[in-house]
Specification:
Blueprint lengths: L4 H13 L2 H7 L1 E4 L2 E2 L6 H9 L5 H9 L2 E2 L3 H5 L5 E3 L3 H14 L7 E4 L12 H5 L4 H17 L4 E2 L23 H16 L10 E7 L18 H8 L1 H8 L4 E4 L3 E2 L2 E2 L4 H11 L5 E3 L4 H8 L5 H11 L4 E2 L3 H11 L5 H17 L10 H9 L3 H14 L1 E5 L11 E5 L25 H7 L3 E5 L10 H9 L3 E7 L20 H9 L5 E6 L7 H6 L2 E4 L7 H9 L62 E11 L2 E10 L5 E11 L10 E10 L4 E9 L5 E2 L5 E2 L3 E8 L5 E8 L2
Parallel strand pairs: 1-4, 1-12, 4-5, 5-6, 6-7, 7-8, 8-11, 14-15, 14-16, 16-17, 17-18
Antiparallel strand pairs: 2-3, 9-10, 13-18, 19-20, 20-23, 21-22, 21-26, 24-25, 26-27
Helix pairs in contact: 1-16, 2-15, 8-9, 8-18, 9-11, 13-14, 14-15, 18-23, 19-23
This protein binds 1-deoxynojirimycin.
1-deoxynojirimycin (NOJ) binds next to loops.
């Protein structure tokens, strides 16, 4: 995010004119609380929607007739600079008050959660990351940015780039998985997609990277929980995606709810000022997460509201999301000298810079024709991209006896209440979708012309319809069971102690297996699941995640063999709950798991990861051979022969890993350093090459210093993090 000299002057001249109250107003972000929703709490409305007392259409109608508080008076008086909302006409009306009726005419910035699409919902990030497709990461973000603008949103609370290794944490669904390298590539491309097409102000938004920082390390996988780690761990694992995003010019960052080594990230001057602003050079501003400032009191880090505000603003937190405390306490904190005016000016300069960079002073409104065009329906290219993204995110986990692909002559017995559901497919934090845009798995099969009969039978919430199950047992040549989780079983505040298939879904699978017909389990879920039983019993397993509005078509495309499965896992799958957290890139112990009892393992369960990071099958097989590693000037050059040895065409994700064999800090057993998607026809062979800069083979020490240490490295190339070829090389830097 760079400003021209003229834009900087604009910011400076505004700052000079602003009163303290107006400055504090810019640091204040409010949401549009619902007014008069018939006195029914939102949670109850949600329940009513679930149990059928209200249809989605009825809810939409209710919402249309419900008013939201856009805080017009505060806007007019310059006491509010930012609003969380996504209604373009209301945004325009409120913006008009800001730019015509407030003293300094500073436009509002409207923020919203657009982490995997606005109205066109793309796969959840955990799924999309598994496509290992950098162009796709960027393209879905670019389209999401355009759609955001059409909804009056110019500040996306995205990308969510928390590295997460504990599948119990519900928010693994929102981010790019367990690996810092993949998460960094994902972060970088998302920022480009959201921010870089500045050919028109309707084409780009300000990104808000979140949740800064180490939120994914919450203890026990419990949301909002404490985090505690060495500096080297912070720098090597959790910071990289934020570093990559800042290097691409990300406009803002959201402080996470967790405390890190005892200091809440909302009020953490080490992470906000020293690292984010000084070291990573955030150009824009830092905002709290919802109510984060107030929560510093509950953490036990601040005595009262005033203390929480002083600690947050002094730590470098520029904007208050929803705790109302900057507007309440900041003025007296400045007057008493507890907060300096220069700290306020720094915050306001950053916020104004983003507004200027977004072109809001010249183009504050969403053009009516843009609003109308989205009301008519979604652009065809957005739908096509949603389908492609969904196809590429599907991971084939098991395919015994080549049950898949199915053919169109087979009669498909489709079971599981998730299969006919067009709402669960959007996953968590999907906000602007319309049911009429969503394609369920059932509809996907129908659209593809498959012979399909549907029996809902059973779902994740414990429901089981015996009659439907008995009928299902009688029908078809092959059974496709869509099982998994509802969309609110993952995402925020959806941590789970048990990540096996919920409800009676396993029981249903057992009954289906008894028919002796081939059974395909299609998983629809927002986190890695513990699938030991399923992996032993079910012949074919497809991880289909929550793939967004085109899920049904994409699942049918892959199951019917029109598209080869090419997604890989961005997060390792444990066998059982008690193995969490599992991740491939762990440091070695002095006693790695082995035959000896006195090794790092469980006595009642294997330590083996069920499906490791990078894993995924195809309808063909790939063979790697002839790994060569060469050193050339300041980089290593790797090549490997990759052959499609099966009878179908397919796409492989070739992955490069390294291991620093002995270092001044214990290094991971493998670390991803590159990947390539390669499409090969049956029988085709290609040489695949990777380059790795020696500069990228180092790590951060416990002072946050990047070090390169000479010595022996192992280089691995393969189709997942477990099965690789290996060569050793001694490297001098
Ligand atoms: C809370 C969530 O943690 C964050 O991800 C989201 O962006 C904000 N609320 C705003 O909705």
């Amino acid at each position: 995010m760079t400003l021209t000299e003229k834009q900087k002057e604009k910011v400076d001249s505004l700052l000079k004119e602003m009163t303290l109250d107006e400055k504090i107003g810019q640091m204040n972000l409010e949401s549009t609380s619902i007014l008069g929703a018939f006195g029914i709490p939102l949670a109850e409305i949600r329940k009513m929607a679930k149990d059928g007392r209200l249809t989605r259409e009825e809810i939409e109608e209710m919402m249309d007739n419900t008013d939201c508080d856009y805080h017009e008076d505060e806007v007019r008086e310059g006491r509010l600079g930012a609003i969380i909302a996504s209604d373009p006409r209301r945004a325009n009306e409120t913006q008009r008050i800001a730019v015509e009726e407030s003293r300094l005419k500073i436009p509002l910035i409207f923020g919203y959660d657009v982490i995997h699409g606005m109205r066109t919902v793309y796969p959840i990030a955990l799924a999309e990351a598994g496509s290992f497709d950098d162009e796709l990461f960027e393209e879905t973000a670019r389209m999401a940015a355009k759609e955001s603008r059409a909804y009056g949103v110019m500040w996306d609370f995205a990308p969510m780039i928390d590295v997460a290794r504990d599948a119990r944490w519900g928010r693994v669904s929102e981010g790019p998985g367990e690996d810092p390298y993949l998460a960094s590539r994902f972060a970088e491309r998302k920022i480009r997609g959201l921010q870089n097409d500045r050919s028109d102000t309707q084409n780009y938004v300000a990104a808000c990277t979140k949740h800064y920082v180490a939120y994914g390390a919450c203890e026990g996988g419990r949301d909002y929980n404490t985090t505690s780690m060495a500096v080297s761990q912070l720098y090597n694992v959790y910071l990289p995606p934020f570093r990559a995003a800042m290097a691409e010019g990300a406009a803002s960052a959201m402080a996470s709810f967790n405390d890190l080594n005892g200091v809440p990230c909302t009020a953490n001057s080490y992470t906000l000022r020293d690292i984010l602003k000084d070291e990573l050079a955030l150009g824009g501003f830092a905002v709290s997460d919802a109510n984060g400032i107030k929560e510093c009191i509950v953490h036990g880090y601040a005595e009262d509201s005033a203390d929480a505000v002083i600690k947050s603003v002094n730590a470098g937190l520029d904007m208050d999301m929803g705790s109302h405390l900057y507007s309440k306490e900041l003025k007296s904190a400045v007057e008493s000298g507890a907060v300096s005016l220069s700290a306020i000016d720094d915050a306001v300069r950053r916020i104004l810079s983003v507004k200027v960079w977004l072109g809001l002073f010249e183009h504050p409104y969403v053009p009516e024709e843009v609003i109308e065009s989205y009301e008519k329906g979604l652009p065809a290219e957005h739908i096509a991209l949603a389908r492609k993204a969904a196809q590429e995110s599907i991971v084939l986990l098991k395919n015994e006896n080549s049950v898949l692909p199915l053919n169109r002559t087979q009669k498909i017995c489709l079971v599981g209440s998730l299969a006919g559901n067009a709402e669960e497919i959007v996953g968590s934090w999907a906000m602007g979708w319309k049911k009429r845009d969503c394609v369920s798995v059932l509809d996907g099969f129908k659209n593809a012309g498959a012979k399909v009969q549907y029996f809902p039978c059973c779902g994740p919430e414990g429901e089981m319809n015996e009659d439907e199950l008995s009928s299902a047992l009688e029908y078809g040549d092959v059974i496709v069971a869509v099982v998994g989780e509802t969309r609110d079983m993952s995402g925020e505040a959806s941590s789970k102690a048990d990540i096996t298939l919920p409800g009676r879904q396993r029981e249903m699978l057992e009954r289906l297996l008894e028919t002796g017909k081939p059974v395909v389990a299609v998983l629809m879920n927002g986190r890695p699941l513990a699938l030991k039983w399923e992996s032993e019993k079910i012949p074919a397993i497809v991880e289909a995640w929550q793939l967004g509005i085109q899920m049904g078509n994409a699942v049918a495309d892959v199951l019917l063999g029109d598209v080869a499965p090419s997604g890989r896992l961005a997060s390792s799958f444990p066998m059982v709950n008690g193995q969490c957290p599992v991740y491939y890139n762990h440091p070695n112990t002095g006693r790695p798991a082995g035959m000896s009892r006195f090794s790092s393992k469980y006595i009642d369960e294997e330590t083996f990861i069920l499906y490791p990071f990078g894993y995924g099958l195809s309808y063909t097989e790939f063979k790697y051979s002839d790994l060569c590693v060469d050193e050339k000037a300041d980089q290593l050059e790797m090549s490997v022969m990759l052959k499609n040895i099966g009878s179908a065409n397919g796409t492989e994700v070739a992955q490069l890993y390294i291991r620093d064999v002995a270092a001044s800090l214990v290094r991971p057993v493998k670390e991803l350093k590159g990947y390539k998607r390669i499409t090969l026809k049956a029988g085709e062979e290609k040489k695949v090459s990777f380059s790795l800069k020696k500069q990228d083979m180092g790590f951060y020490d416990n002072n946050g210093k990047y070090v390169l240490e000479d010595g022996l490295f192992r280089i691995f190339v393969g189709g997942n993090s477990r099965d690789t070829l290996m060569q050793e090389i001694t490297v001098e830097f």
